[in-house]
Structures are given as structure tokens and as C-alpha cells.
Write a structure and sequence with these properties.
43% helix, 5-stranded mixed sheet, Nucleotidyltransferase, domain 5, 2 domains, 330 residues
Length: 330
Amino acid sequence: MKSNDLFLGIDTSAYTTSVAVADGNENIIMDIRIPLRIKEGSRGLRQQEAVFQHIGNLEIIAERLDQIQGKIRAVSASAKPRWTEDSYMPVFTVSNNTGKFVSKMLGAHFYPTSHQRGHLRIALKSCSLEPGRYLAAHISGGTTEILEMEYSGNMIKESLLGGSGDISAGQLIDRTGVHLGFDFPSGRPMEDYLRDKDIHKLKEKYTYKAFFKEGKLNLSGIESHIMRVYHSNGDMDSAIYNVFINTAQVLTDMIKYYSKETGVHTVVISGGVASNTLIKNYVTDNLNKCGIQAFFCSKSYTTDNAAGIALIAKDMYKENGHETEDSQCK
């Protein structure tokens, strides 16, 4: 692979327009993310509104691409939320179609992938993990799932083991936060709010209300319980702590269950919720007690981004032998 060979990744998720460029040594040399605009007090965006904003954001990003010094050899784009036949969200038609168009214009190879696989790929890199077999927990605004993942030669093959049957962990946190008066998305401002609070006192008020049994997970009951308690006592500190630690405990229970089922004792955790320090510390400490090692994606890549998608473009380019073909054409 030549020193000026570059790889472009495009991701248009529910709340962020992302474009990234990686080189052949997996250095991320460009990483642009533009959050979508969300009306104050709302709980999110409709898909058609998100699509419209993505199109405008990509025009802004296009003006910065002339800064790239090198040859784009391959383009990858998130074509769907997960790499399954029935997975679909309208927002990802923007990244997929843009990727196809750009690759044709540049004479580059095109590889569709999934939003989730992009999260997994950048998590593996940020944790400096070697090829192997892992559990992978993806916890975000759209997804709370656990997968079994084979990572070999920088290629990922994942299969779904289980996940939430109702709302995601990110939805639980955001819906609770908006109800408590925080802006959407609410995870970070809620965590900041607790930063100077007495966590030891909050632990005494903690009650577990999540549901996980024999692989079945439901999270909406936590929201209902916390809101009932909050409206009875007005204790915002406790409400926030409870939503975070309930999320952490049910995630821990789910990982322990599937670790026993699969015999895999290492888990990679990615997605926006993985940036929460309280959740990370609780999960890490409690899994360690059970002999399970947890690797959390670095905070800079937990939120939606296209860095993992760009790395997948590089991986697929090499896997399909185009590196040799293109060098012979010179």
C-alpha cells in the first residue's frame, strides 16, 4: 500500500453527519462530525427531517475535502443500522448513495457496511485489541445489543446474541433526562450534573428495576419507576443516579449471561452510552469480579463517527486484493 493511499468513510446516523479519512497505516487524518439540530424540549428527530439535514451538512463537509492530500482508493458508507437483511433506516440511504456517487466520481472502490460495524471497528482499534473472538456490546440511542464477534485480519464477522426488547439504553437516559428538564441528548449534561454530588449517599437510595432474565431484556420499566419516585419526592440527584446505575447493572447482567453461554470472557463496549463514567466504572468493576475483561471504546469515538467506516474501507480494499491490482496499473 502506497503512502498516499487514502480511504473515505461516510456515516449519516439519526443524529450526526460524519465523514472520516484514514491512511493505509490506520491513522485517522480527517474526522468531521456535524450534530443534527434538535428543537429544544423534543425527544429526537423524525427520519425525514434528519435526511434533509444530512444533505445540507454533506455540502458543508464537501468544501473541506479539498484539504486531503492523497489518492482515495476506496469508499465505505453505512448502508444500514446492522449488517442483517431486515435492517433499515431512511437516514442511511443518504450515506450509502453519497458513497456510491463519490466512489464513481473518484474512480475508487465502494464497500457498503453497517453503522454498528463501524462502531465495532473503531472500538477494536481504540482499545488496541488483537484478532480474536469477543463479545461486543453496542449501547447507544438506537441500540442496546450484545453480539459475538470474530475479528481476524482486521475483518469483522458479528452475530446477534440478544438485546433490549423495547427501548434502548440511550433512549431510556434521554427520555428520563428530557422529563427532568435537560436538553436532548441528555446523557452528558446529566452526568455533569452529578459530578459534584455525594455518590455514596446516592448509592443508599439505589433500587434495581431493570428486567433481564434468561436472555430477555426490557428497559422501559426503569423509566416508569424512576418517574414515579421522582414525582413523589422531587429528588433529581437520585433519579439520575438510578437511571445510570440501572443501565449499568442490567448491562453487566447481560454480559455475564452471554459470557457463560458462549465461553467468551472478553467484551468490547461501544456506542454513545459507553462514554458515561459511572456506567463504565460499575460495569468494569463488577465484570472483573467474575473474571470478565471489559474494554470500553475511547470517549473520543463513542459518539457517532465515520472513523470506523473509513477503516473498513481500508480493510475491504486490502481483503479484496485491490492493493495489488492498483499498484500493477501504474
